[in-house]
Amino acid sequence: QKLSLVASGTAACHGILVNENGEAFAFGRNEAGQCGITPPCAQISTPFNLSKHYSALIGKKKVVAAACGKHHTVLVTEDGCAYACGSNKMGQCGLGGKVDTPKSQKAGADSEKPVELKQCDIQEEVVSVACGADFTMFVTKNGQLYACGSPQYGQLGNGTDGSFNSSASSIKMVFEPFPKPTRVYQGFGTEKVIGVACGHNHSIAITDAGHAYTWGFGGYGRLGHKEQKDEMTPRRLETFTNRFVLPDNGKSCRMACGQTFSLITAFGGQLYVFGKPKATGDNIMYPKPLMEISGWTMRSIACGATHTVACSEKSTIAWGSSQYGECAFGAGGPKSSANPKLVDDAEGLVANSCAAGTGLSMVLMNDPVDKFPLYEPPEDTPDVSAPTGAGAKRKTPASKAEPAQKKGKKAAK
Predict the structure, then answer these.
(1) Strand 72-77 with 115-119, pairing
(2) Minimal CA–CA distance to 303: which of 9, 34, 69, 73?
(3) Contacts 24+ apart (CB under 8 A), 397-400
(4) CA distance linking residue 337 with residue 292, whole number of Å
(5) Residue 243 to residues 213, 246, 247, 286: CA-CA distances in angstroms?
(6) 290 closest CA partner among 308, 313, 315, 305
(7) Higher confidence at residue 306 or residue 173?
(8) Lowest-confidence pick of 19-23, 102-106, 116-120, 336-340
(9) pLDDT digits (tens, 9 = 90+) for 27-48
């Protein structure tokens, strides 16, 4: 059956597929239950039908939007409801429930029990969603922006990083999570948000006035404000103001965020970049046009942590790291490309949209793709009939868990 949507996230090692019937399928890493299967397992190679497994919750509603964080997943259905699963350690699932206490945020602390798919605690009708590593952004039908999760670098845009000293005898800073979606109202004025994208710890949004705003961790110039300062609230990009506002009131613009850089399309579909998109070279402190693909109109762009995929006309373009083949340069192709490079196997084919994660790329083709080999996943899907309630025991993931991120401004990359 044909697909209508592909989704992942710059910090994610898993992805979401949505077919024409609006059913959502998850695959990839699942050590925190981010693919909707609890108790968790190391990974899911065969796409798992979330809509069917959680039919009692979702019913027959079609999934119209999705996003993936490092250890969580959010789905949006046609009636504006949002659902989340995975780790809720920093409140990134937006369930409004209890998260780990600041005392347990020390290095090596495990997350709380992964949550099955549950409805997010947001009262307005949601139309789109974006996920950073440990936070989530919701855009509502009336143009409001809501955020939940980790505020450590100001990425929630609510004016605080949630930090306080938890020790009476020494300096021990911790960051209080925001488990319930909270409206981001500072910075936008009367403008309505029509789109948002998230990097690991920063965000970019477009409004109906044709303005672009960024906030969060400012290292390497990824916010585009000519300085490396963290922004606690949305700050307008000076480049796209006055005579240079985004065309079509921002509706035709595309944007994406990598771990240390940001991308946005502007006049004539020209792609602009700021931050540190390459492992070497100087930081780009404000939006600059990517001249290598000047004149191309971008239909869709997506970023993994260190690579980018773009769909334009009858070409698919990729650049950045391709250590795991995420740039699709072929078996004998380069392991990286500092500059945009055509994906030869997809040349001449129309790609409707794309998505990218860490070491992962997905391109939704409009043309027949009979020339490509069919991937046969291994039989590693766990028994989903196992108990998942309060009495279920959590299985130890087979893969080695990633070390907890160190706290402090210098820890982000």
Answers:
(1) unpaired
(2) 9
(3) 397/31, 397/40, 397/41, 397/42, 398/41, 398/42, 399/29, 399/31, 399/42, 399/43
(4) 12
(5) 17, 9, 10, 17
(6) 308
(7) 306
(8) 102-106
(9) 999 999 999 998 889 999 999 9
